[in-house]
Amino acid sequence: MSEAVSSASGGALTARQLHDLLKLRVDVFVVEQECPYHEVDGRDLEPGTDHLWVEAGDGLAACLRIVTEGEQRRIGRVATRPDQRGRGLAARLVAAALDRTTGPVALDAQSYLEDWYAAFGFVRVGDEFVEDGIPHVPMRLDRPHD
Fold first, then answer.
1. Can you tell me the distance from the alpha carbon of 25 to that of 4, in angstroms, rounded to the nearest whole number?
2. b/e per residue, 115-137, with b = 16+ CB within 10 A?
3. Where are the beta strands (DSSP E) in the chain?
4. Residue 121 CA: distances (Å) to CA of 30, 48, 50, 83, 116
5. How far apart are CA 79 and CA 29, in angstroms?
6. Chain segment 74-111, per-residue pLDDT in tens
7. Tell me, what's the pLDDT at 93?
8. Neighbouring C-alpha atoms within 13 Å toward the C-beta of 28
9. CB atoms inside a 10 Å sphere around CB 110
10. What is the pTM of this model?
C-alpha cells in the first residue's frame, strides 16, 4: 500500500497534527533512543517551517520537518514508528522534501545513517560530533535556487 505524503506549513498545522508529530518524535527520539532533549524547540510553528508525514491506517507512521535557515533549508526530525519501519516511508519523505525545496539543503545525520543520506546526494561537510549523546555528521546537498 502506498499512503500519500501529507504536508503543512507550521502555521497551518491543526492542534491534532502538531500533537501527533510531537508524540511520534518524542516516542522515537526521547523514549526509544533514550535521548532526553528539548523536543519542543519553538521551530515547529515558525514561518518557513514545513512538515511532511505519512499516515498508516491507525495513525501517523513517519514524519520529518524542514526549517528555513537563511538561504538553505534544513531537514530534521526524521522519525518512523517502529512497527512501520522497513517500508521505505522515511525515504519517501526525504525524496518528497527534496522535490518541494530548491537550493541547498542541510541536515545532521545520525552517523550510522550517513550512507543512507548519501544515496540522496548529501555529502559530509564536517567532522562527526555528539549531540544529545548520539554521534552525528553534518551533511549538505548543494543545489541551485530556482
1. 20
2. eebeebebeeeeeeeeeeebebb
3. 5-9, 50-56, 59-69, 72-80, 105-110, 123-124, 129-131, 134-141
4. 28, 23, 21, 28, 10
5. 8
6. 999 999 999 999 999 999 999 999 999 999 999 999 99
7. 96
8. 19
9. 16
10. 0.91
What's the distance, CA 19 to chain centroid?
16
Q: How much is the pLDDT for 25?
A: 93
Tell me, what DSSP letter sits at residue 45? T
CA distance 84 to 39: 22
Q: Using CA atoms, how far apart are residues 68 and 27, in angstroms rounded to an integer?
A: 25
Write down the mean pLDDT value for the chain. Answer: 92
Residue 108: alpha-carbon gap to chain centroid: 10
**Tens digit of each residue's pLDDT (9 = 90 or more) over 27-45:** 998 888 888 877 888 899 9
| Rg (alpha carbons) of the chain, rounded to whole number | 15
3-state secondary structure of 7: strand
